[in-house]
Amino acid sequence: MEDDHEWMYEGRIVNGMFSNEWGDKVDEFVAFALSHPECVNGGTTIRCLCTLVKCQNKKFLNVETVKVHLYKNGFVPDYYVWIYHGEKQVHQRCSSSVRVSVSETDQMVSDNMNHTTYHRMVCDAAGPEFNPDEEPNAEARNFYDMIPVGDKPVYEGNSKHTQLSAAVRMLEIKCRHRHHMEDVRNVRLGLFADGFQPLGQSGQQYSLWPVVVTPYNLPPDLCMKEEFMFLTVLVPGPTNPKGKIDVFLQHLIAELKSLWGVGVQTYDISKRQSFQMRVALMWTINDFPAYSMMSGWSTACMLACPHCMEDSDAFRLIKSGKQSWFDNHRKFLPINHPYRRNTKDFIKNRKVTKQFPGVRSGDEILQDLNNRGLRKVIDVDVEVVNAAISKTSQS
Question: Which residues make beta-bridge pairs with 375?
């Protein structure tokens, strides 16, 4: 099997259709994994390496289901070394032009060890001779302590981040926001949108959607005052824009990107000097229906929860057929919480062992959208392509 695995993240969808060449590569990968008995569970299942939070090399599924997941969701990011599927001595990609050897010891991962990107980061920094079982000298103690920290959760019951991954994530955020934090005069914005009927009770239906931003640099008692709310977009009626609201937001989004990345020359009257002011959109504020329009995630039906997404535990009531989310909340509790074992006060005779996998980051959601091949609402073939993809995803 060739050791250049960049095909995993390239050419999955071509002209709105799944690529036959990419599919052939997936078949080769599955055959390669099945040829390594140590990576196969029960003779027919392998670890699913799609981007779903519950998968990502954690869950064993039959090979046909793994293929379907890969077609729908794509490969988990940065899995250039197939350590869970039989590769023992390969080359791990460090950049587009530099590759380093990864020892066999670093590839052998037992089921009780969470071998994460952050483990590999520490091992790569130490070099190929690094052995975490060897007793370190006093000077190296702090560095060696990073290895067990890679396994410890930030707090009990959290499976999303370890102490090390959280620290790395915070450093990444600080680096990304360094330019914005350098000057306290840079602006932090909040954005909110909602529709209303300007004609009141006249009987004529007309939906109008204002999009408003407000600066959060101000004291709390001022930032929500009317004089500091700036109308940026007014989406006309007569009907609700629904999923096409981002057509009206294009210019605002482009301007916010420019203000974040480049900024604008601004004059500070108090210091009598010009400076490059940058702007960061911190969050949006909406009710649930407007949240659906702004985010693109449907807040209706069985998958209404934007945190659980397709991992929803919603069910239909037997007699009425209505959707219900009763007793879906216990999975958010710490794993040893007594309510998880309570079989009387919730659904009778039911204990909950399932854990919430964590809220997806913006990067994860964006990658999921890109992997699905969804078109933007401004694209010519958006309705045909997105309808086909949505139908496939629901089947």
Answer: none
